[in-house]
Design brief:
heterodimer; A: alpha/beta; Rossmann fold; five-stranded parallel sheet; 37% helix; globular; B: alpha/beta; TIM Barrel; nine-stranded mixed sheet; 13 helices; 19 strands
Chain lengths: 306, 444
């Protein structure tokens, strides 16, 4: 792998959103992620990030994303500090900007930021000299999740061009859905969203997005289906979601063998049956596996390693 | 800007001749180029021979501006503004009167509090809007008659609407007897649902909770009905939707005593600014990542959709919108340098109102006499203040260069705060001279 020149011509200083990335840039990240995956398997990725100190600033609890970033940064030789913010006094006493500016003075160079407010990563990028990687901001964006999903889906389908991907569930409150709409759409997929009215409100006006009124309409001939976690902590009741639950029978409407994705963690029996989540169509495990190499690719590109 | 000078209403009366300026006086329809003399603080047929002669060529002189909606943040604003700094900001923006809103800490809900602010000696007249409800708590009507005696020019729970229908009717009935307006912040809090920007495609894309137009329209319709029933005057402040202006237009056609104002930022900025655009409402938005989620674009009511902003401009142009009022809302940096949904709502406006209006005029959305009327004579009429450049009148005027440009910089602002997304932008319109009650309050 030609890890020596991965960042040549990469123009973005931060990864705040998928929205600003061109198809070529997305392809480049995915291509590099494949290289990273192979290099990681061969333990041949070296120390590209040896000059970087990566801070993990998770203002919301997270396991898989945080661990995935930590492994990705360490695999490339970075020094990693987890601020342990969620639940600590830092999250209350000090403003986000002040905390990040302090981090910057300690020598941290890149910050992986998870925050409950949409736009927190934009604020961090604007007010500090740090390289900011958005690990999820409010209901806005979760770029690396979408990149992992795009890689997973592309490898399952061969190509995303002309393929229909149905995204089912609480789209309105989902940063994963928004970032996937951008990522998969830019890579050529047709996006269909579906869910209870309040959960797809406003998406009729999203260019290129089709809103399906029933789950049957959403699934019909879909080449892949992504179902979202019902956010029980937002007061959603599992019973309300039965009409939108993915099960074997409904999946018969989709294209033969259409794979299923879910950003996790799943509420089995709520948005998806346990059989489907754990069955042959499920790419849920692959999504997690691809998380680390995708994040390695992102870190390397943003670090300008060349 | 370096030789800018501020004065107060207690200074010596001014005497000068402004030679060859365009005189725009909506009070009698004047729009002509001539000399304007001021002697001992009054508009005069001619000034003494030794009076200072100011070259007015290329300048406009108009009646002094009157802001119906100003937050001076006194008491309790921790220095984000003071009467002194706020009145200087007013003078620098061409305003000779500001109406201080009562959502201070504690609120201006007593005759003593109203009288104290109203007696301020400052760089402009300071009029006071009393709290409509006791403690601005929205539970019981305030002591409206006593506050009126102390000088209140109207009543508002600004920051919120009077919350319940029955209380609104009770307050309007009292105000009908006093002949003073309810100045309503029209927002149904439940319908607003905690939204932080205008609902629509931009909010959907940004993942920010949307504030629906119905939150405003519901209160506008309620208040218009109750004002008609009680015979009270109703003034709807900072309207932000086309539907609200249309409701006012219909009420006006029925002969009802409803007036309204719109802010410069609802006319000229749009919800695309939250998404990173810095283009005006009549221009195509252009989104830039580095400007997205700027807390300085958070305001209540939120910045309007482009379509609504253009409807609001049309409302000013056709006269349905009586006044342009700033809703000048100073905040310290730490209240804005936070994630968008945590930012305190509001932006400063006294020093940029004329410039934004002139930008709209340059774009052909307004004509200059209409803009001047919306800033001066029409809001002044709503609070019963005289305005006009007739001989013998106390000089209350602004002189500005409509085509000169200035860059909005924190260091240039007289306000104690600088929370505006216009920082760094170049705008048309530089105030050269402001005269309030015959005294020079600002000169550059």
């Amino acid at each position: 792998m030609t890890v020596g020149a991965v960042a040549a011509g990469w123009v973005h200083r931060h990864l705040l959103d998928v929205e600003g990335l061109t198809r070529e840039e997305l392809e480049r990240i995915l291509h590099l992620a494949v290289d990273m995956r192979e290099a990681r398997a061969a333990r041949a990725h070296g120390s590209l990030l040896e000059n970087e100190i990566v801070g993990l600033a998770f203002y919301e609890a997270s396991t898989r994303t945080r661990v995935s970033f930590e492994l990705a940064a360490k695999a490339l030789g970075a020094t990693v500090v987890d601020l342990g913010i969620a639940g600590s006094s830092v999250s209350k006493g000090e403003s986000l900007v002040d905390t990040l500016r302090t981090l910057e003075r300690t020598g941290v160079t890149m910050v992986v930021l998870r925050h409950a407010s949409s736009g927190a990563a934009h604020l961090a990028a604007r007010t500090t000299g740090l390289c900011i990687i958005n690990a999820g901001d409010g209901t806005h964006a979760h770029p690396t999740q979408a990149l992992a999903d795009a890689l997973t889906l592309r490898e399952a389908l061969g190509s995303l061009s002309g393929r229909t991907v149905a995204i089912v569930g609480d789209v309105a409150h989902s940063r994963v859905a928004r970032s996937n709409i951008h990522a998969l759409g830019t890579l050529g997929a047709h996006i269909r969203v579906a869910g209870p009215r309040a959960w797809v409100a406003g998406f009729e006006a999203w260019p290129g997005v089709e809103v399906a009124r029933t789950i049957e309409d959403a699934l019909r001939k879909a080449n892949a289906v992504m179902t979202l976690r019902v956010q029980l902590e937002r007061g959603a009741r599992p019973a309300d979601h039965l009409a939108w639950r993915l099960d074997e029978e409904r999946m018969q409407l989709a294209a033969p063998g259409a794979p299923i994705l879910h950003p996790g963690p799943t509420n089995e029996g709520v948005e998806i049956t346990a059989d489907l989540a754990n069955g042959a169509r499920s790419l849920i495990g692959r999504q997690v596996e691809n998380g680390v190499p995708v994040r390695m690719a992102v870190l390397a590109l943003l670090a300008g390693v060349a | 800007m370096s030789q800018a000078h501020f004065g107060r209403l207690t200074d010596a009366p001014a005497t000068f001749v402004l030679a060859g300026a365009r005189v725009i006086d909506p009070s009698d329809g004047t729009d002509t180029v001539r000399d304007l003399a001021v002697g001992e603080g009054r508009i005069a047929e001619e000034a003494p021979a030794d009076a200072e002669r100011i070259d007015g060529r290329g300048l406009v002189v108009a009646p002094g501006f009157c802001d119906l909606h100003t937050h001076l943040r006194v008491p309790g604003g921790n220095g984000s503004e003071t009467v002194e700094s706020g009145s200087r900001a007013a003078a620098r923006g061409g305003f000779t009167t500001v109406c201080a809103m009562p959502n201070t800490d504690p609120p201006l809900d007593s005759p003593a509090a109203v009288a104290e602010i109203a007696s301020s000696v400052a760089a402009c007249r300071v009029r006071v809007v009393g709290a409509a409800t006791r403690g601005r708590a929205g539970e019981a009507a305030g002591d409206l008659a006593a506050m009126a005696d102390a000088g209140a020019i109207g009543f508002s729970d600004d920051g919120a609407a009077v919350p319940t229908d029955g209380l609104t009717r009770e307050i309007l009935a009292s105000l009908a007897r006093l002949g003073l307006p309810l100045i309503e912040h029209a927002e149904d809090a439940a319908l607003g649902g905690g939204g932080v920007m205008r609902a629509g495609p931009n909010a959907t894309r940004l993942g920010l909770l949307g504030w629906p137009a119905e939150a405003e329209v519901a209160i506008v319709e309620r208040d218009i009905a109750l004002a008609a029933e009680t015979g009270a005057r109703l003034h709807l402040t900072h309207l932000s939707t086309a539907a609200s202006v249309e409701a006012v237009r219909r009420a006006r056609a029925r002969g009802e005593a409803v007036t309204c104002d719109v802010t410069p930022h609802h006319l000229v900025l749009t919800d695309a600014w939250v998404a990173g655009s810095r283009r005006f409402s009549w221009e195509e938005p252009e989104l830039r990542e580095e400007f997205a989620y700027d807390g300085r674009c958070r305001v209540n009511p939120p910045l309007a959709s482009r379509e609504d902003a253009l409807s609001l401009l049309a409302g000013v142009a056709d006269g349905t919108v009586d006044a342009i009022a700033t809703d000048h809302a100073p905040h310290p940096p730490e209240r804005k340098l936070v994630p968008f949904d945590e930012a305190a709502p509001g932006l400063i406006g006294l020093e940029t109102a004329l410039s934004l209006g002139l930008a709209a005029a340059e774009a052909g959305c307004l004509d200059l006499p209409t803009l001047v009327a919306a800033l001066s004579t029409r809001p002044a009429a709503i609070i019963g203040e005289p305005r006009g450049l007739q001989s013998g009148a106390s000089a209350n005027l602004v002189v500005f260069d409509p085509s000169a440009r200035w860059r909005v910089e924190a260091s240039a602002l007289a306000s104690a705060s600088a929370n505006t997304p216009l920082l760094g932008m170049e705008l048309p319109g530089v105030v050269r001279l402001t005269v309030a009650d015959g005294r020079v309050t600002y000169r550059s």
